[in-house]
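User: I'm new to structure prediction. If I give you an amino acid sequence, what do you actually give back? Let's try with this one:
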Amino acid sequence: MDENGNLRKGERTRNRLKEAALKLFAENGLENVSIRDIQLAAGQKKNGSITYHFSSRDALIRELVQDVGKILDDGNNQRLDALEASGGPRSVRDVTEIMFPSLPDNCNLSPKQQTYGLRFFTSVMLSRRDLLFEATAGQNRGTRRCFDAIRKLAPDTPPDILRQRMMLTLMFGLSAGASMEAAAKDQAVWKHLWGQASARSNLADTMAGIILAPISEETRAILKS
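Assistant: Good question. You get back a string of structure tokens that encode the predicted 3D arrangement of the chain. For your 225 residues, that looks like this:
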């Protein structure tokens, strides 16, 4: 920033590139967006804008993941802190209720980033898990705390099964959040998918159900083999 608190030209260009990339990745998937697509959407005529500001396309994705991931992880930490302060969590559902992802209005993302953040993050989770884990290696404290709480609340579930189910719960929650984010642009879709008053509560039930579902005899037989 300059002495008046305004963003310098390079910072403004950087932010435009990030916002354009986030929207394109969220709407089209990582594989279907090129560097040229991002530069054109950001109004940049120079072909080297991405490499100048971020060194590479992956570096740009990594920074976007860190931006969104930090907000999500901070949210998990804050909600878990409040739950523990009130004497919880007392059940797996207590934990899954706070794990449902959201990007609050007062977070450090721009309005455009809040509109596309969950869909982008989910796209990276599905197609570039290696990059996602690399970018969030120093984050995820809130997620780990939630997982530790679930382990204490479901001690009889075999560790391998519980680990799988916690990851499935996380993936389901992010995908549901991305669906909710996309539906917010269309009231007819919103009403059909998320308009019921019970929607969020039912999502927490479903996420807890993934963790607590009975283990079939078929799966137990595989564990013993």
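You can read the tokens as a compact description of the fold. Here is one thing that stands out. The mean pLDDT is 89.
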